[in-house]
Amino acid sequence: MAFGSILIFSLLFLFIGIGIPIGIALGLGTAITMLLTTKIPLIMIAQKAFTGLDSFPLLAIPFFILAGALMCRGGIAKRLVNLAESVVGFIIGGLGMVTVMACMFFASISGSGPATVSAIGSFMIPAMNERGYDRNIAAALTAASGTLGVIIPPSIAFVVYGVVTQSSIGDLFIAGIVPGILIGLSLMFVCYVVAKKRKYPVSSERFSAARFVKALKEATGALMVPIIILGGIYGGIFTPTEAAVVACVYAFVMGKYVYRELEWKDVYQCLKETALINGATEFMIGLSMAFSNYLSMAQIPAYIAKIIIGFSNSPIIIMLVINILLLFVGCFMENLVAVIVLTPILLPIVKSIGINPIHFGVIETVNFAIGFFTPPYGINLFVASAISGESIERISKAILPFLIVMIIDLFLITYLPVLSMGLVNIMK
User: Fold this and answer.
1) Tens-digit pLDDT profile for residues 13-22
2) How far is residue 195 CA from its own chain's centroid?
3) What is the pTM of this model?
4) Are 184 and 216 a contacting pair, CB within 8 Å?
5) Of 15, 83, 191, 368, which residue has the fewest beta carbons closer than 10 angstroms?
6) CB atoms inside a 10 Å sphere around CB 183
7) Domain-by-domain residue ranges, the chain?
8) Which of these, 39, 3, 48, lies nearest to 300 by C-alpha position?
């Protein structure tokens, strides 16, 4: 057991380290380990990958990706930015706060961290540069704010976690609302502090109720999306997967016939982007399912659980160790794959110390969200770098204040279950 666990994880990190795509690394590592430690035919990998993907809830992933793409090209992102600017644009660090708030709004639509960075960053990074913000600060803020895409519902990470654990995806969506708002407000606070310290210019335009009402009217259509999704799920009208389809139809109608900014060529590009992203995502998920199945057969989760529990009997210490582990893994592994691989290992441990699976889903997702902007994986960093033209190194240095505050938020969410479970309990 010990040899199998050491071998499979060593191979996984070796393959990732030498640049092999993570999906292939998962499949290859599993195959070599099975070949050397078991007599199970390797065809099992293909079988488990196929059966693992044969899941109705997983259909939500491509539809949420498509909905986010349609809304980005259909003018919805621009209107969300205008709404955010009408609310906080006049405050010190206001333009940075606009970026955070716009990411919060768009997160409630897209369910994706990189998509949020791309959609909002394309508007806000150049705008912040024009207003005197340092380019690395603007890029760092956008990369950090983009993590809200996987925390505020609907979240693709929550969908995958719900499939893996057989938990209510609707409950996970609700549980992510308050933590997402907490993180958003924390990032806005950092914006204020950084802007005041660096003496960034403040907008001369004061708050205007008329401007706010106008922006709100223009963005009402966009803001209805999370209401429709969550209301439909909790009202028993449709499942999370059906909600994703409804979001696609709604995004198309709004962009094409209401805002009239979505052209048929844009629809084609959205479908193309969705196919490419989903193809890569499903490939990783399928092989990670096979990887996870081998871990279960070899009883590696129980072995690792024994090691972790060996540190202490205290739930506080155990959750501290788990958070450190998740933060470390999030630096190297794609979040959906990490959810599938680690959740079967860690869930029995957290259950044994009285942690609700829904609460743990939020903890895990926040950990992996932080991984979106921490090197070397840090996909949000790469997206922000591509938009801003700033180097990864400079963005990584500038992102430290945002990283610190998100880690503080992580521990608040971990040790104050009411932040994630309070709203869930009220809704039941």
Assistant:
1) 788 778 787 7
2) 26
3) 0.80
4) no
5) 15
6) 29
7) 2-427
8) 3
